[in-house]
Design goal:
10 strands; TIM Barrel; metal ion binding; iron; PA0069 family radical SAM protein; rSAM_sf; 34% helix; single chain; seven-stranded mixed sheet
Length: 357
């Protein structure tokens, strides 16, 4: 195994140093040579599932420009491996690298349904839509085995509590039986992330996600079953998917989405280094162009942390992207509307059944 060999099926191509740890891990040349001579793999590239036991699961979101009040994440880390993912930095708080570790060391919160139920039964809790995901995808591959998201949806249904879902995985359709019951009382809405119509782009940008065809069919299937769907065309990355805004918006509308959202890519924290290394290996012919255009959107930097500006960007390129989305909404979504979820039922179901008196 060569030191700079491309790691197939992964987004990040390295494990950058954890900023909170004094020690760091390095793959030395002499070790790699030893593995080669012995016929061993220095890195088997396998995903590890690690059980953790948090004390709380519902998080209050204080960021004023995120668009959600509360979120919960059944998993920490995400095997989807999206190279641009802002959540990578959060893996450092658990003692791991935001690079390959984020994709290969998945923390499993098996007590999430129990913690959620305790929260919804609390006398002090007032119903407010809780977003499943928000940091890492609740329908990532681990969900096939652990079913934590499904069990959480059962809790939301039991207590008639509103829930939003963000995912880029077609696995969400597995839970249509629960989702359709929630939808009867306007208690659920979904956001499906679709960042490109090109499978070639999808495979390198988001290596372990559902295909574009499956995602669009998921939008259609959810919509046909009465579940309102927003399509997130996010992030928009100049010179990678920025030319696809109008075709993506049309595809979303044609498949039943009631709205679209977008952000402009920002490479915060360690993601700047991870993304730069990745694009130099996957798109060397346009790496500098893409990086410079991202900088153009953030005042000459790969990231801007200012609320209200960090996800919208500034400058001519950002303005052009926003103009295309205004056109897309007028052309494809003028008569559609994403709903506000119902918060009026939960109080009567706080003990898990309807209170008659």
């Amino acid at each position: 195994m060569e030191k700079d060999a491309y790691i197939k099926g992964r987004g990040a191509q390295q494990n950058v140093r954890n900023r909170f740890l004094e020690m760091s891990h390095e793959m030395r040349d002499d070790f790699l040579e030893y593995c080669r001579l012995e016929g061993d793999e220095a890195d088997d590239n396998k995903t590890q599932y690690i059980r953790v036991f948090p004390k709380t699961i519902v998080n209050k979101v204080d960021s004023p420009d995120v668009g959600m009040g509360y979120s919960m994440n059944p998993y920490q880390g995400c095997e989807h491996g999206c190279i641009y993912c802002y959540a990578r930095n959060s893996h450092e708080y658990w003692g791991y690298s935001p690079g390959l570790d984020f994709e290969r060391r998945i923390l499993i919160k098996e007590n999430a349904p129990k913690l959620l139920e305790e929260k919804l039964k609390s006398k002090n809790w007032k119903a407010h839509a809780i977003m499943l995901s928000g940091n890492t995808d609740c329908y990532q591959p681990a969900e096939q085995q652990f079913l934590i998201t499904r069990e959480c949806l059962k809790v939301f249904l039991k207590y008639k509590h509103p829930v939003g879902i963000i995912t880029k995985n077609a696995l969400i359709t597995r839970d249509l039986d629960i989702l359709t019951e929630l939808a009867k009382d306007n208690l659920v809405a979904a956001s499906i992330s679709v960042t490109s119509l090109s499978e070639k782009t999808r495979r390198v940008l988001e290596p372990r996600t559902a295909s574009i065809k499956k995602r669009l069919s998921t939008v259609k299937k959810l919509s046909e079953n009465g579940i309102p769907v927003n399509v997130m065309i996010a992030p928009v990355i100049p010179s990678i998917n920025s030319h696809e805004v109008l075709p993506l918006a049309k595809a979303a509308s044609d498949h039943g989405a009631v709205s679209i959202g977008h952000t402009i890519v920002r490479l915060n924290g360690a993601i700047g280094q991870i993304f730069t290394d990745w694009i130099q290996k996957t798109m060397p012919d346009r790496a500098e162009k893409v990086l410079h255009q991202i900088e153009d959107c953030h005042g000459g930097n790969l990231n801007d942390s200012r609320y209200g500006k960090r996800m919208t960007g500034e400058g001519k390129i950002a303005a052009q992207i926003h103009s295309m989305f205004r056109i897309a909404r007028l052309k494809y979504f003028a008569d559609k509307c994403y709903p506000h979820l119902n918060t009026s039922l939960h109080e009567s179901y706080k003990d898990g059944q309807l209170k008659l008196f």
